[in-house]
Write a structure and sequence with these properties.
Layout lengths: L3 E4 L5 H12 L3 E6 L14 E5 L5 H15 L4 E4 L14 H29 L2 E6 L12 H22 L3 E6 L9 H8 L10 H16 L5 H14 L6 E2 L6 H9 L2 H12 L3
Parallel strand pairs: 1-2, 1-4, 2-3, 4-5, 5-6, 6-7
Helix pairs in contact: 1-7, 2-3, 3-4
């Protein structure tokens, strides 16, 4: 029997590319999205089953999982990919905007995972792959809300993996650094349109905009392919490895974060984000 993966947020970006990649490898794919009318980025394949799932709607989560199991017979892997970035100055973001960021990036992934775990427990196997970010390990300026949601996702996944090991279930994290190369960057702008402009921050915004412009230019040209391949590796390598960081653009900062002293790391990132 072919293995089956359920992927959230497959209308575009990493989600659509991952769905197509798994299908090309012979997997059954339950491709979920908020609006199934936006499935134009998915290949027309008999082993891709498109169904509606909004991570902020528990009923739609339960329904999508049930429909996927009914269609293919089982689920072996869940990829919690649905998410977006609230990008802007913290002080300018409303409490409602921050709540929505966590509802999608954290509580949505938790609700999908909670809903599929009884199925995984019954078959004594399963893999949960949570799409984090380099910003799940590093706090980025103008992305403090997004970073904090991904920090939460990583902390939860790391703790969860211990609980599930005895049941034959594995939890893993993907840390892309190349999100700027997908339509995700456009959503970051769209989601931030309602943020209040506070003029005191304008000099900082101008300076950090130049920094991010340079970082975007240095992003891996093949970031999407690298991330998709890392997701597939996490699903198929048979290990309990926790983190996969597939793109080169984020690796120097991750290396500094995880392998240098706090003083060295702060000096390194200050030089990137606070240099004049």
């Amino acid at each position: 029997m072919n293995k089956t993966v359920l992927i959230t947020g497959t209308s575009s970006g990493f989600g659509a590319a991952t769905a197509n990649y798994f299908a090309a490898k012979g997997w059954n794919v339950i491709a979920t999205m908020r609006d199934t009318g936006k499935d134009g980025n998915l290949d027309k394949s008999e082993n891709i089953f498109v169904t509606q799932l909004d991570v902020q709607d528990k009923n739609s989560i339960d329904k999508a999982i049930a429909e996927g199991i009914n269609h293919f017979g089982n689920i072996d892997v869940v990829v919690n990919n649905a998410g977006y970035g609230l990008f802007g100055i913290f002080e300018s973001a409303s409490r409602e905007a921050i709540q929505t960021q966590f509802d999608v990036n954290v509580f949505g992934a938790m609700d999908v995972t909670r809903a599929v775990l009884p199925h995984f427990r019954s078959q004594k196997s399963g893999t949960i792959i949570n799409i984090s970010s380099g910003a799940g390990a590093i706090g980025f300026p103008m992305a403090s809300i997004y970073s904090s949601s991904k920090f939460a996702l990583e902390g939860w996944t790391e703790g969860l993996r211990y609980e599930l090991t005895s049941l034959g279930i594995v939890a893993k994290i993907i840390e892309p650094g190349g999100a700027l190369q997908t339509s995700f960057i456009n959503r970051m702008g769209d989601e931030g349109l309602g943020l209040q402009l506070i003029e005191d921050y304008l000099p900082f915004l101008e300076q950090i905009g130049k920094v991010y412009g340079g970082m975007q230019g240095a992003a891996d040209a093949d970031a999407v392919e690298k991330v998709v391949q890392a997701i597939y590796e996490a699903a198929t390598d048979g290990t309990d490895r926790l983190r996969y960081s597939p793109t080169n653009d984020i690796k120097p900062i991750l290396e500094a974060r995880r392998n240098t002293s706090e003083e060295e790391y702060q000096a390194f990132t200050n030089n990137i984000f606070l240099s004049k």
